[in-house]
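yo, Putative NBD/HSP70 family sugar kinase is done. seq:
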Amino acid sequence: MNTYLGIDYGGTKLIIGEVREDGELLRYRRYPTGLTGQAEIAAHLLQCLDNYVAEEAPGDRVRGAGIGIVGISDYRNGIWHSVNHEEGIPIPLAQMVADRLGVPAGIDNDVRSAATAELLWGEGKNCSDFIYVNAGTGLAAGFVIDGKVLHGAHCDAGEIGHMVVDYKSRRECVCGRRGCCELTASGIGIHKMVEERQAEAPAELLELGLNGRYPAAAVFRLAREGSDFCLSIAEEAAEVLSCTIMNLVRMSDPDMVVAGGGLMSDPWFFQRVENLLEKVTMRHVSKGFRVSGFDAAFSGVIGAAAVGCLKAEALESKTNNI
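structure:
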């Protein structure tokens, strides 16, 4: 049985796991992260990969490997350019992993990797034109057009969180503009909204925020339990997210929209977003607005494995045509 190794590196965790040819996660190991420098992150990733290989002994069953990682990655050339969309250092991370494992390896950013998993094994496997919208800590998307994931000229396509939805907003974004949708329709955005209105927030929520961030899951739970404050926060996030989705639908004309990420895995919040989608705008989305079938906690590692699968298939095809 062939497997693909997925390496999912995020801001708070690194997951390395093996995924079967049908997209099922067979085994995984979780490692801590928290480093900020690119060189340190790359070294830590390779060290954890060595540990995984030593402990799990994947051997000959791994056919390819993929890295899904934050920042900017050059999918075509296997280069990790930046950890935070600012200028970084080009690291040939895919080749470094390939050399470690002796199999083809690819790299992409975390959200486009998840979109690749949807295309190969998930909701999009029978759909050649769809949008994967990931609303989690941040807000980003993967566009699949004619059966291919859109990367863009500089491998930075899908940063929808920096679309301005309120040009009168006073909320400043790291991109340099105000009123970006990520400042509302994401875990970061929900935290910022609570922070702006702390004086009105329920004591239970304020206590949860002592760890550094007001969790969206708690906001949604308290809203369901009757907190008007939390309901107003959730409604603003849902309104902005639904507006963003409809803008994307108008732009790329998909057959389907797949929702992923921690926010959209909450059925109550998903339903609120869905209820705000206007029928006229969504009338051609013939295959619907649906939640990803992948567990949000593991969509990253499955997505990374999907990138590895495509890399292995591309190399095999090239070899067969020589």
